[in-house]
Amino acid sequence: MAKYIVQGGNKLEGEIRLKGAKNSVLPIIAATILNEGESVIHNVPNISDVKVMIDILKYIGCYVKMEGDTLTIDTKNVNSSEIPESFVRKMRSSIIFLGAMVSRFGHTKISYPGGCEIGPRPIDLHLKSLSQMGVNIEETHGYIKCNKQHNKACEINLDFPSVGATENVMLAAVKTNGVTKIYNCAKEPEITDLANFLNSMGADIKGAGNSCIEIHGVNKLHDVEHRIIPDRIAIGTYLVAGAITNGRIIIDDIIPSHINSIVSKLRETGCEIEYINNKVQLIAPKTIHSIDVIKTLPHPGFPTDMQAQMMALMTLANGACIINENIFENRFKHCEELIRMGANINVNGKLAVIRGVDKLMGAKVESFDLRGGAALVLAGLAADEYTEIDSIHHIDRGYEDMEKVLTSLGANIIRA
Ligand SMILES: CC(=O)N[C@H]1[C@@H](OP(=O)(O)OP(=O)(O)OC[C@H]2O[C@@H](n3ccc(=O)[nH]c3=O)[C@H](O)[C@@H]2O)O[C@H](CO)[C@@H](O)[C@@H]1O
Ligand SMILES: C=C(OP(=O)(O)O)C(=O)O
């Protein structure tokens, strides 16, 4: 299995530009099956999760072409509404096809997704909402079978503002007669991007980005062209790379309101951060100040997808930090690996206490999940000598050519 070898100690300096957001492009790719026509999507990251989505589209009969960062998908000839286990195992978020398939065909059969590296990830809210929308759901032999019984709108109150459940309801409701309302929906920027994509396709969705979304049913959709929003989590990850190496970096193509919660925490560490047009510049302090508390919350709170990377930074801060992980039950697997590198971390349930140390030591560590893996690379950039990070296929799920981006900033990192 592929690994990264990082020689720590280089200050990262320079300017980078990253591709679009993984968490936008994945539901948008699923949404392309709604219009029975062509979708052209720009700013698509070349990551393994996108490749799995493309494989699923091809499996169900779509024409797909990727040229540079532009993905063209024609869904006219889709001939299957079934997604087998092999795909869902590779990528849990393929569950987003539930809403898309129900919208296109009124029925689907998708393998049940298990938990994943960050803990159990139930889909009860997805299924409860679809069932309130008139979809009959049968769970048999590890598969979920959905059959739409009627085409009438309804009001959904989510018990938790789940990103995936909000997306599935939006997709399923696009062609439903009347106005479907989702209360307590997710407000993440990727929800707004999906709504914008669907609206450009002819849907009528209002309120995305707020806690109530209204989907006014339409009869007809058409071809669409769309650019994916910048990846706020990849941007945050590379900002931390600048901070942890006492560096100075500029990232082009950012949307300030999407990264405010990350930037405000990085400012607490003493980093000077400025927005210049659509770029962000970070100048790291000599000593990283510790942050008292980092609480992960739904947007606009601090994102769980940046928790591990901030923890890596806190291992070298000048004091103690409490991280409170409120979104996922088991998103602390990176702690043990950071401890192997000399970090001082105590985990108790949803809380991790990180006491800053003077230095980290290069070690052999394993990436167990996407962001945990990124955190280990960040720690390796600042550690003494060599860090070997195993199982980097997790990192490849969400970061395009991480080693090339870091090398362009002066890091010493190779893929082996
Ligand atoms: C592809 C994608 O966009 N992934 C993101 C999405 O995942 P995802 O859409 O899976 O995350 P959710 O917002 O649904 O999950 C948030 C919390 O709700 C719980 N829950 C969710 C659904 C459900 O039916 N029942 C239930 O209990 C989950 O277990 C978790 O504890 O949002 C997460 C939270 O911002 C991010 O970390 C992921 O990167
Ligand atoms: C948890 C993540 O993604 P996914 O929902 O695709 O597993 C992530 O992007 O950090």
Please summarize what this structure is:
With 416 residues, the protein is an alpha/beta fold.
What report would you give on this structure?
With 416 residues, this protein is an alpha/beta fold. It folds into two domains: 4-18 and 230-415, UDP-n-acetylglucosamine1-carboxyvinyl-transferase, Chain (Alpha-beta prism), CATH 3.65.10.10; 22-227, UDP-n-acetylglucosamine1-carboxyvinyl-transferase, Chain (Alpha-beta prism). The chain contains 14 helices and 24 strands. The chain has helices at residues 22-31, 48-59, 85-90, 97-105, 124-132, 163-173, 189-200, 232-244, 256-268, 307-314, 333-340, 370-382, 393-396, 402-408, and strands at 4-7, 13-17, 38-42, 63-67, 70-74, 82-83, 107-111, 135-140, 143-148, 155-157, 179-183, 204-206, 212-216, 224-227, 248-252, 272-276, 279-283, 293-295, 320-324, 344-348, 351-355, 364-366, 386-390, 412-415. Strands 22-23-1-24 form a four-stranded mixed beta sheet. A hairpin with a 2-residue loop joins strand 4 and strand 5 (70-74). Helix 5 (124-132) packs parallel to helix 6 (163-173) and helix 8 (232-244) runs parallel beside helix 10 (307-314). It is globular and about 65 Å long. The structure holds uridine-diphosphate-N-acetylglucosamine and phosphoenolpyruvate (PEP). Residues 22-23, 92-93, 116, 118, 305, 370-371, 398 line the site of phosphoenolpyruvate (PEP). The active site is at residue 116. Keywords: Cell cycle, Cell division, Cell shape, Cell wall biogenesis/degradation, Cytoplasm, Peptidoglycan synthesis, Pyruvate, Transferase.
